[in-house]
Amino acid sequence: MIFEQFLTLDYISTFLGTVIVTMLMVQFFKELPYIKKIPTKYFTFIVALFNIVICSILTNSFAFKNLYLVFINAILVTFTSTGGYDFTVGNVKFNKEIQAENSKDIIEKTKSLKEVSSTESTESKK
């Protein structure tokens, strides 16, 4: 779907449409005071489940026998929606840890060089 028009129910009812709407809704609502307390992963699941159920009802495809599939699909949408974020944030934290280690190494090497240079200057004065 080329985004030249607003979302349609047919598009939102697809997997990609549900993922996009779930991500949009989570990003929009997650800063609300009572939602902030819910871990994002679980809030994303609730939104995904809500989206799938509403789309099923509106397209007249809702059936109680499909509730298990709705639940599983909501988990799939949740992992798809949060996977990119977790991957990105995980890498950022990892890079920050490496950067911190490198900074410590640089500081230690600088101290060592200062000690060596001060020792050399003291010895050269003698």
Report on the structure:
It is a single chain. The longest helix is centred in the C-terminal third of the chain and has 59 residues, at 67-125. The chain has one domain. Helix 2 (15-29) crosses helix 4, helix 2 (15-29) packs across helix 5 (67-125) and helix 4 (40-58) packs antiparallel against helix 5 (67-125). The model has no long low-confidence stretch (mean pLDDT 81). It is mostly helical and 126 residues long. The chain has helices at residues 9-12, 15-29, 33-36, 40-58, 67-125. The protein is rod-shaped, with a radius of gyration of 26 Å. It is built from five helices and no strands.
Keywords:
5 helices; mainly alpha; rod-shaped; 126 residues; 0% strand
Low-confidence stretches: none
Biggest β-sheet description = none
Q: Could you report the average pLDDT, rounded to the nearest whole number? A: 81
In what range is the share of β-strand residues? under 5%
Count of helices?
5
Q: Give the N-terminus to C-terminus distance in angstroms.
A: 80 Å
Overall domain count? 1
Form type: rod-shaped
- Helix-strand string: HHHHH
Helix/strand class? mainly alpha
Gyration radius, in Å: 26 Å
**Helix percent band:** over 70%
Please report the total strand number as a whole number. Answer: 0
SSE topology sketch:
Layout: H1 9-12, H2 15-29, H3 33-36, H4 40-58, H5 67-125
Short note summarizing the structure:
This protein has helices at 9-12, 15-29, 33-36, 40-58, 67-125. It is mainly α and 126 residues long. The termini are far apart.
